[in-house]
Amino acid sequence: MTSASTAAPARREPELAGQTVVLIGGSAGIGFETARRARSEGAEVILTGRNPDRLEQAALEVGAQGTAAFDASNPAAVQRFFQNLAGPIDHVLVTAGGPTYGPLLEMDAAQVSEALSGHIVVALEITRAAVDKMRPGGTLLFMGGTGGRRIARGTGIVPAATDALPPFVAALALEIAPVRANLIAAGFVDTPLSASLLGDQLDARRKELRETLPIGRVVGPADVAALAVHIMSNTALTGATYDIDGGQQFVS
Ligand SMILES: NC(=O)c1ccc[n+]([C@@H]2O[C@H](COP(=O)([O-])OP(=O)(O)OC[C@H]3O[C@@H](n4cnc5c(N)ncnc54)[C@H](OP(=O)(O)O)[C@@H]3O)[C@@H](O)[C@H]2O)c1
Q1: Backbone dihedral angles phi then psi of residue 47, each to the nearest 5 degrees
Q2: What would the pLDDT profile of 124-181 be if each residue is shown by its tens digit?
Q3: Which of 160, 158, 164 is nearest to 142 (CA)?
């Protein structure tokens, strides 16, 4: 018998011990699951969202250090939030905001501008407000998607809007170094947002994905949270886009 076979398994250090993670959109879905995962890796978390009741419930569930209710698309509110943070922070995940679906010809000029630039404007205002509070090596982390990679009838403005995000995040990473910036591009993720978009089609879509995705199951928010926490803890990653869609972009 070797000593290796009797040794207790090595205990690893929590990956985010001593760090603080801000979740802009942390009361549900991907943001909430990332808060939970970050807590399990030793981080303090601060959650934001618009609905104060949902926020307080989420904060209780994960043991958040703090919460703030505001609309992330309001630059003054974003600035106030970061100004009022007591200490330095390490990472900021932005999950506020969603895609704009619908036929191109039915969109007016304001809707087109918002769909094309809304995510980028919000990301930039959050970066501007947050970056001086962030420790070197921390990351800003934004959400994009793989759904727009393939043009199809019905994808509307989504492919154009999501294509702008990877070069935006790469350029941002150069400007804010040594703080990092990264992008997660998700396919279908089983969250309250997906449920609200699909309504009574949700179960049929889940079934279709289970039958067609190479991974044979539906991607959940905990999958994306695991990726988000890895990007936070791996300080070699910046300016990059990480796909997480179970292979969806290749099959549907
Ligand atoms: N789910 C997917 O299949 C999927 C796929 C690709 C990309 N994404 C992107 O990933 C992000 C997160 O999606 P999710 O599915 O986790 O969404 P979700 O389940 O709806 O959760 C969104 C969270 O953000 C908050 N939020 C939304 N808009 C906000 C705003 N303007 N200001 C402040 N907080 C806001 C929500 O709380 P309140 O409503 O109370 O504010 C909630 O806490 C979105 O940007 C989405 O477009 C999702």
Answers
A1: -105, 140
A2: 999 999 999 999 999 999 999 998 888 988 899 999 999 999 999 999 999 999 999 9
A3: 164
Beta bridge partners of 46: 22, 66
Task: Give the Å distance between the CA of 24 and the centre of ligand 1.
Answer: 9
Which contiguous run of DSSP H or E holds residue 242? strand 241-244
Q: Coil, strand, or helix at residue 86?
A: coil
* CA 191 / ligand 1 centre spacing (Å): 9
Beta carbon of 21 within 6 Å of any ligand 1 atom: no
Per CATH, the number for 20-251 is: 3.40.50.720
**Ligand 1 atom index nearest CA of 71:** 32
Q: How far is the CA of 49 from the centre of ligand 1 (A)?
A: 9
Model confidence over 206-238: pLDDT tens digits? 999 999 999 999 999 999 999 999 999 999 999
Nearest CA to ligand 1 atom 29: 96
Domain boundaries along the sequence of the chain: 20-251
Q: pLDDT digits over 112-125, tens only? A: 999 999 999 999 99
